[in-house]
Structures are given as C-alpha cells and as structure tokens.
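Need tokens for this chain, all 199 residues.
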Amino acid sequence: MKELKEKAQALIDKYTPELSNKGLKLLLSKRYFESKVGERLGATGTGAIFNSIEKAHDRKKENQKYKYERNKYHALVITVTPDEKSGLPRECCRDYAFVLKKVERAHIGEEPRRIAYAEEKILSKIESHILKILKKAERASTQKICKDTFGDVIRYTMKAKYGYKKHFLGKDRFTWDLLLGIGAAILSLAVILLCWIFN
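Here are the structure tokens for all 199 residues:
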C-alpha cells in the first residue's frame, strides 16, 4: 500500500507544474475508517412478519459467524487546495476518495465481502480526476475548483467511501443526513400529490 501511495504521489508530481499554473495544489493522504453494520431495512404490512423472522435469523448468523464485523475501508484521498494562501481552510476544500480495499456488507447476517482493487485501475482513476480538475480550471476560478459545494455534500453523504468525513460545508454529517432525509421525504410527498392532482 505504501508503494501505491508513492506511485500516486509521483502521478500528482507529474502534473504539479500545470496545476500550479492554474493556482492549484493537490494534497494526497491515506485514510482508514470503519463503519457500523446495521440490521436489514424494515418492511410494512404482511412483509413486516417475514422481515422480523429474517432479522432474527440475521442476528443468530451474526453471533455464530461474523461477530458484528464492521465495514472497513482503506482509501487514498486527494484534496484540491489553492496553491497559495487564500484563507480557504483545508476542511472546506474538495476531497476525492479512491478505495484501495474494503470489507463491506449491507446488513448484519450477510457475509462480509472483501474486495481489493487493481493498482493500475486506481492510478488510472486518479489520473483521470487530475485531468478533469485541470480541464475545469480552464474556465473556473481557483476558489470554485477547490471549495466544497452542495453537490459535494450529496456525494459525501451518499457514498460510503467518504465515511471519514464528519464535518463539511459548515455542518456535521448527522445534520446533513437529517436535512437530506427531510428533503427527500418532502420531494416524495410532492410527487405523490402532483400525481394525485393530475389523475
């Protein structure tokens, strides 16, 4: 893993002069984090009976075989920052995570899947992201390229590989999860209401 990080850094160094001309700097870090595995999602009506049976079976299996093993992620993270001091704190800068290997499952009782990604694939993705950043920098300001936006908030909350980020765009992860959940519920109700009106 150390060797892969060195190769990724060499790739960043290759593009550093171009990035610097655009007022950008890429910081590379290695992240390891874990997340708790919960129970399978519930069901309503008749399905709730079968769901409770499945949950009981999951817990039994978990106690016997998997011992509540957590989801685990090893990742390389590139943070896009301004090249010079701009007053923009690093925690407000945009992150791109690239998973190296992970142990993951949707719910307890399910067998943990162990996945390791090919080195070439990871390096190719990193290079592709660097080229996208350079392309964006041709038509956008340094601040716009570096600073987190609401689109990044959705990416950070929806993708498991950003589980290490606990605070972004001025709020903690729990607050964003709550706000996005409420927003999704309101949107769903609005769609149902519109369908009802037009029928």
